[in-house]
Design brief:
Elements (H helix, E strand, L loop, with lengths): L2 H8 L14 H12 L10 E6 L2 H9 L6 H4 L2 E8 L4 H14 L5 H15 L3 H26 L2 E2 L7 H8 L6 E10 L17 H4 L4
Helix pairs in contact: 2-7, 5-6
């Protein structure tokens, strides 16, 4: 079996983390870089990733996560956020970054920036939040794959109170909304979920060749 398939078969939604094991800085850097390099629509990256280290904050967030222990037991708690609104200034900053990174004059990217402004700013607030939230799910896929390759366990969570997270972390003032929560770290040796067979549909049920 190809190595990447071994990695993906290794991973599972870890229900119990070992609180005594912590990610080292080198591994954490790779995970952060993997998220930075994740694809996004237009390349705009209308997202923000919060690494919650404060034990006090994590205890408070566990209460907003229906008491789920991984929020406090995992090595790190990652809150994946999306922009609530996308303004022309965000697109201008993106265009300047493109020009600077690719050694272009800003006039060379002005047309694309204007196209983005017309497309993005014409959306309703609900459409914008739906679109930026989908960018977080794209990044989550990359996060889970890289964690599996690094033998780092992860638990993607939608089961939390978004409004409470927003209040605790002051997200609205930062133009952010919490989309997903993902504790990362190392499985507890007694986590029963790790011994359960992975259940997936067979290939024939998932793929159709036309």
């Amino acid at each position: 079996m190809h190595e990447i398939l071994n990695d993906l078969n290794w991973r599972y939604a870890t229900k119990r983390f070992d609180p005594s094991q912590k990610l080292d800085s080198a591994t954490l850097y790779i995970i952060q870089e993997a998220l930075r390099l994740a694809p996004s629509s237009y390349g705009l990256q209308a997202v923000k990733y919060l690494f919650i280290e404060s034990p006090e904050l994590r205890e408070e967030l566990m209460g907003a996560s229906f008491g789920q222990r991984p929020v406090v037991d995992a090595s790190h708690l990652l809150v994946l956020c999306a922009y609530r609104e996308v303004h022309p200034v965000h697109i201008d900053e993106f265009a300047s970054n493109v020009a600077r990174t690719r050694s272009l004059h800003e006039n060379a990217v002005e047309g694309y920036a204007n196209f983005m402004k017309t497309s993005i700013t014409s959306r309703s607030p609900e459409e914008t939040r739906s679109w930026t939230s989908r960018q977080v799910y794209i990044a989550l896929g990359q996060l889970l794959t890289v964690c599996a390759q690094l033998r780092v366990d992860a638990l993607p969570m939608e089961g939390f109170n978004r409004e409470a997270y927003g209040e605790i972390l002051g997200l609205e003032a930062k133009n952010l909304t919490a989309v997903l929560v993902c504790p990362i770290g190392f499985r507890h040796p007694e986590d029963p979920a790790q011994f359960q067979a992975k259940v997936r549909k067979p290939l024939a049920d998932l793929f159709e060749i036309l």
